Amino acid sequence: MTALFEHALRLHRQAPDAPLPRDGEPYPDGERHRRHRPESRQEFRLQGASVARILDRHFADPDAPAGALVDAFHDVHVPIHPNEHIGAAARRAEPRRVRRTGRWLVRHSTDRCSVTVGLALLAADHAEPDIPLIQTIGLLSDRFGSLAAEALMRRQGGAEALLWLARRVTGWGRVYVVEALCRVGAGIARPWLLREACDGDFLNGYFAGKVATAAHLHEAVLGGDLDDDVADHTGRLLRIMTGCEGMGTTLATYPPAAAVLAAHSAYLATQAPTVERYLVAANIAGPLAEKAPSENGCTPAQRDDVVRQYLAVLNRQDWCDAVHAGFDRDGEYAAWFVPNVATRLSLRAFSSPGRG
């Protein structure tokens, strides 16, 4: 069976600047794990403790090779996030042996459970030579992204390594890595955070507000650095923050919300009309118009001014023409957008067929 590291490396070489297709699924050990029993409630409450006991026994034997752990974790619950029990077991053992064991399991294991434990051991260490190894296994980001982000944060040069990984992961892996970037690498990654962090996935709601805060979005949009790329990404951030209650920071809890909304709506009037910009702006204006101003971080006067500015742009003839030319009115998205946004805002482009 192919080692998971080799599986990730092979897929990465096929498209070195893009996320792995389907996040690398199916893994080489997929058949084995389709029959994997669900964890019990007791295992969930004590997650990581069984792994720690196995590690303690292994490290107590000075002659036990790392390969002896390949199948040791398949029948216990292995957390995919940093875990205090596993971290404590790593600290109890001799550091060089922990490092060697973690490296071997990540590079050579054919089972995702032991690869996860190996990555957890590396996440308790700080050796810089392991960065490429951690980045590569982190490309299988749904399973390994959280521990890879933790491991990279602990290393000098980790911010650059996190940025490399952030450009090549999606889904939950993107959540883990972008959140880590916001914590330790926002300075180095600021241009990317201001322009590319949100890729349109629903899960962006978990980190959109953290990106806005860590990248000092308000300074970029109010300080004369606003360009089309920053403005378009700002629109995506604002759209997410109008409706991510229960996931992350909303406009109501983002102090510069009113100022950023005003700057974005004003800059939108200078941009060339596109369907994507139209839809983003409409999906910001809709919640602004319907919710109480305080729910969007605005006073009533601020909210009204921003909504008027958005509608003034959206109802311009050139913007209506762009929608008529490029929007699929028969698609699944249109079936939701027209009654829930366009009709409620009385958008001219949708007022009657063929007219704007």
Rg measurement, Å? 24 Å
What is the global morphology?
elongated
Uncertain residue segments: none
- Distance between the amino and carboxyl termini: 60 Å
How large is the share of residues in beta strands? under 5%
Q: Helix tally?
A: 20
Helix percent band: 55-70%
Mean pLDDT: 94
Main sheet characteristics: none
Structural class: mainly alpha
Extended strand count: 0
Pattern of helices and strands: HHHHHHHHHHHHHHHHHHHH
Region (Disordered): 10-43
Biased composition (Basic and acidic residues): 20-32
Structure overview:
- Residues 20-32 have a biased composition (Basic and acidic residues).
- Residues 10-43 are annotated as: Disordered.
- The chain has 356 residues and is mainly alpha-helical.
- The protein contains 20 helices and no strands.
- 61% of the residues lie in helices and 0% in strands.
- The N and C termini lie far apart (60 Å).
